Amino acid sequence: MSKEDNMSKALPGYGTIVVPEDRVVPFGAVTPAPVGTQKLFQTSNWRVVRPVRDEEKCTKCLQCYLACPDACWVYKAEDESMEWVGDFCKGCQVCIQACSVDGALVAVPELDFEGGVVRLDKPF
Ligand code: SF4
Ligand code: SF4
């Protein structure tokens, strides 16, 4: 299949999806590691909980970072900060299962957040 074939696909009932050139991969292939935020593929609108990290308890072992299937954790070595990227988090809690430090990473209901996805009139 040519690269051009991949870039624009008409799906029944969904119109045409135009894939940005720098994100085109062969169908059936694994998507490369994220290189930036991709608004076209936001996948957090079905999330009912979100992982919340306790800065005091967290040991920065990075197990959550490694376990997340969608690279929702960004680690900056310069200042050892960890950022959660909510636009892509599905609330699957795989990261929480991977965390071995009691209470360092917990699931908090979206309803507890003023801007939680379950409160949005139009999620994206
Ligand atoms: S797995 Fe737990 S302790 Fe390790 S970096 Fe993530 S939140 Fe912190
Ligand atoms: S809940 Fe799932 S998608 Fe969200 S950060 Fe954790 S592992 Fe990633």
Commentary on this structure:
The chain has a two-stranded antiparallel sheet. It has a two-stranded antiparallel sheet with strand order 3-6. It contains three helices and six strands. It is globular, with a radius of gyration of 17 Å. The chain has 124 residues and is α+β, with helices and mostly antiparallel strands. The model has no long low-confidence stretch (mean pLDDT 79). A hairpin with a 4-residue loop joins strand 4 (73-76) and strand 5 (81-84). It has a domain at 39-112: Alpha-Beta Plaits (2-Layer Sandwich). The protein binds iron/sulfur cluster (2 copies). The site of one iron/sulfur cluster has 12 residues, from helix 3.
Q: What key attributes describe this structure?
A:
124 residues; binds iron/sulfur cluster; 12% helix; two-stranded antiparallel sheet; globular; alpha+beta; Alpha-Beta Plaits; single chain; 6 strands
